[in-house]
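Researcher: Go.
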Amino acid sequence: MALVVFDLDGTLVDSAPDIQKAANRMLADEGLDPLDLPTIISFVGNGLPKLVERVMTRTGLDPARHAELTALTSAHYNASPSALTLPYDGVPEALTALQKAGHSLALCTNKPQEPARAILKNLKLAHFFECVVGGDTLPVKKPDPAPLLHVLEQLGGGTALYVGDSEVDAETAVRAKVPFALFTKGYRKGPVDQIPHQHSFDAFAKLPDLVNQALAL
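Model: Structure:
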C-alpha cells in the first residue's frame, strides 16, 4: 500500500524524562544543578550532541569539553534508555491497524540507532518496523533529507508519508519532498500553523484514517 515512516522522540514515545535523567546525571557529575523537563524538551530534536551542546550553553560548561560530555551523557542514557519512556496513547493500536492494512512501517530518528532499537524492543514496538535509521546510521542527521530518503530506498520506494512532531521533522519532509503528518502533542517549539505540513493529528486513534485519507489524495 504505502510506506509510513515515523520519527521516535515526541512522536511515538514520550522519551523526554529519560533524556532529562541522563542530562542531569551528567550535570551532577559536574557539580551543577539539574535542568527542568520543559527546558530539556526545548533542546530535543537535533540529536544528542546538539542537545548536550544546548545543555552546556545553558549551564556555562566549557564548549571545548563537548565531545567528552556528550560521551558521558550518552553513557548515562544508554544505561537506561526506556525506564521512564512510554508510548503515546493509542500508538500500538494505530501501528497494528496500519500494518494490518498492508502498509510498510519504518523509523527515521535522530536518536542513535542502538538506543532507538532498545526502546522499540523494551516497549514491544520493534516488530512493527521493517527499517530503523538512527542519527548515527549516516554521516548526516535530520533535517538533512538523506536519512529519510535512505529509509525509502531501503523499503523499495513508492508512495510515502512521514509522521513527526517537530520543526526538524517538517523540514526533513519538505527537503525530501515527502508529505508530512504532524503529531501536534509532541515536542514542537512553535505554533502548529507555522510548521509546514499536509496533515495533522492530536491522537493516534485518528492516524489510520488520516493515512487512508492522505493516500486517497
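Model: The CA atoms of residues 20 and 40 lie 6 Å apart.
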